[in-house]
Amino acid sequence: MNTSLLMLWGYWDEIYQRCTRLTYIEKGKNIFRVVVLRYRGEPLVTTDNCIIHEGDLILKLHIHNYYFATLCKEVKDELRVALLLRRHILQSLPQLATFLNSMENKDQIKGIVGTTMLHKGVTPLGFSISDVPMSWFFRYKRWYLRLMLRFVHPNGKQRLQSWNHEMPLKRVYMSKELLLNRYAEGKQPLGESY
Question: What's the CA gap between 160 and 181, in Å, rounded?
């Protein structure tokens, strides 16, 4: 990615972070940012049979796209980009579990929920996947994420053209209990050999 474009993105990212009230798990070291909010949507059934209902308190999960772009700005191979993303997600989940476990209102939080097009390979990490309704909000989000992918991916423009509509936007989610049982401090993250 062009260095000046990356710098402009950095300025925009700071504004975006403040406007959305996103909290860093650990700035510059963790790929996730989060915000606590009420879930809006159809019931989500996790792999451990927890049900997240509309109105339940969740930790909304966001991949820090700008941070990830800085990590892979010199990477030209798309497989290395995918492996880099997976490694950083796996490394970030234990810190996310520690963060959630230390929150004052952790007892009210039902789980973690994110929206992404990069959902392949997340089920071995403990996430469940479901479709999202194509409302105007999710159409906008899909457009935005495709734009981010174009910047981050080494062959972004060509890849998006070949994928076209084959990259649906999905919800990825996990219950609080599964996150803590699997990734809490002192536990060996599962899926490391995947």
Answer: 37
Q: What is the CATH number of domain 3-183?
A: 3.40.630
Locate 180 and state its tokens.
């803590």
- Average of per-residue pLDDT values in the chain: 80
Per-residue pLDDT tens digits for 124-150: 999 999 988 776 665 666 666 666 666
How far apart are alpha carbons 43 and 170 in whole angstroms? 14
Neighbours of 192 (CB within 10 A): 11
Tokens representing 47? 């792999």
- Which segment, 32-46, 54-68, 174-188, is predicted with the most confidence on average? 32-46
CA distances from 13 to 19, 54, 67, 91, 173 (A): 10, 29, 9, 22, 24
The answer to whether the beta carbons of residues 145 and 92 sit under 8 Å apart is no
Q: Is 65 helix (H, G, I), strand (E, B) or coil?
A: helix
Of 118, 96, 104, 110, nearest in space to 175 by CA = 110
What pTM, to 2 d.p., does this model score? 0.77
Task: Specify the 3-state DSSP secondary structure of 38.
Answer: strand
